Amino acid sequence: MKKFYGSVQNRIIEDTGFPADYKVEVGSGATKCGWSDRYPYSVCSVDENWNNKGYEIIGIQADDYKRIDNNGMSEEQSYEHTPNPNSSVVYLKSSVVTTEKGDFKIYDTVEWSEKAKRWVKGHGSYGLGFRTRYFDYSF
């Protein structure tokens, strides 16, 4: 589904697909996308074939971050990221989509439903494969 809100950069990050054989590794980066801000996360768990269902469940946790530049209210921002093993875990579920250009793996936010005993659609938008922090001073 097309998303018509927020910054173009964040919408591009959210819709990033990976080759169907892409492997996520513990410690690799992730990024939470807000309207135009971005927040760093780290992959803390990978279940490559959750309950033999044929899809991955990836756990990510928010990183601590500290701004390290002196650019003030600027687009040029540099941050230092540190994993925070005490932050709550957000889960992403993989699925493979077929396009005219081939098969791609995508990851969507999910939450465990104790009532339904299954993963259900979660909240928030995340990108995998990198971590970044950005604060939009125009809001």
Please state the structural category: mainly beta
Distance between the termini: 26 Å
Q: How many discrete structural domains? A: 1
Our Rg estimate from Cα atoms comes to 16 Å
Task: Identify the quaternary structure here.
Answer: single chain
Walk me through the structure.
This protein is mainly beta. The protein has one domain (8-128). 5% of the residues lie in helices and 46% in strands. The chain has one helix and nine strands; from the N terminus they run H-E-E-E-E-E-E-E-E-E. It has one helix spanning 8-14, and strands at 18-19, 29-33, 38-47, 57-67, 79-83, 89-99, 102-113, 118-121, 125-128. Strands 1, 2, 3, 4, 5, 6, 7, 8 and 9 form a nine-stranded antiparallel sheet that branches. A hairpin with a 4-residue loop joins strand 7 (102-113) and strand 8.
Provide a compact summary of the structure.
With 139 residues, the protein is mainly beta. The chain contains 1 helix and 9 strands, in the order H-E-E-E-E-E-E-E-E-E.
Architecture blueprint of SSEs:
Blueprint lengths: L7 H7 L3 E2 L9 E5 L4 E10 L9 E11 L11 E5 L5 E11 L2 E12 L4 E4 L3 E4 L11
Main attributes of the structure:
139 residues, 1 helix
